[in-house]
């Protein structure tokens, strides 16, 4: 299932990269994809990005269930209900617990942010948005990959780089 998720994220990055950088064939002027092809990207993705793994929902994300406890997402700069919202990250999530031993590759492959599945009312600070949680809580380890160059939360993001996006260190939970 990892390969399916990898392919979906790679294809998403390639579509965005093609729209930004053209075909890159030596000796030819850079051309972007056909306007009609780009117009079809949104409706095509909208049909598959309908899953919601978090409660309450994250208003600036769209999710697709990739199966086997994995999901891929589009992270926007504004809530997706805003017509001016733009994709700033693509990424993937792996189901797990808020435990160091559940964090994929110990965070070395970019899965550094944990978001719990259910956030109870009354939480404050970052926890109110589902970030981190209590030891062993269920949720998803997330990897964000920037699709543009921008500054956010005091960090500089560049295209197609896995970033240390909002790390939420977890402690060991034991077996």
Précis, in short:
With 175 residues, this protein is α+β, with helices and mostly antiparallel strands. It contains two helices and seven strands. The two termini are 24 Å apart.
* Protein structure class: alpha+beta
Count the E strands. Answer: 7
The main sheet comes to:
5 strands, antiparallel
What is the helix fraction of residues, given as a range? 10-25%
- Adjacency order of strands in the biggest sheet: 1-2-3-5-4
Radius of gyration based on Cα positions: 17 Å
The DSSP helix count reads: 2
Basic shape? globular
Provide the succession of SSEs. Answer: HHEEEEEEE
Strand content: 25-35%
Span of the ends, CA to CA:
24 Å
């Amino acid at each position: 299932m990892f390969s399916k998720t990898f392919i979906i994220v790679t294809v998403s990055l390639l579509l965005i990269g093609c729209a930004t950088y053209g075909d890159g064939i030596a000796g030819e002027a850079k051309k972007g994809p056909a306007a009609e092809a780009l117009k079809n990207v949104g409706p095509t993705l909208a049909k598959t990005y309908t899953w919601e793994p978090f409660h309450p929902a994250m208003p600036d994300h769209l999710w697709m269930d990739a199966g086997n406890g994995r999901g891929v997402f589009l992270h926007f700069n504004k809530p997706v209900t805003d017509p001016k919202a733009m994709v700033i990250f693509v990424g993937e999530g792996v189901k797990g617990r808020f435990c160091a031993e559940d964090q994929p590759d110990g965070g070395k492959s970019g899965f550094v942010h944990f978001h719990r599945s259910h956030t109870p009312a009354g939480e404050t600070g970052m926890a109110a948005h589902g970030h981190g949680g209590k030891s062993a809580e269920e949720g998803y380890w997330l990897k964000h990959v920037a699709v543009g160059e921008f500054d956010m939360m005091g960090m500089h993001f560049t295209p197609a780089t896995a970033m240390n996006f909002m790390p939420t260190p977890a402690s060991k939970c034991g077996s």
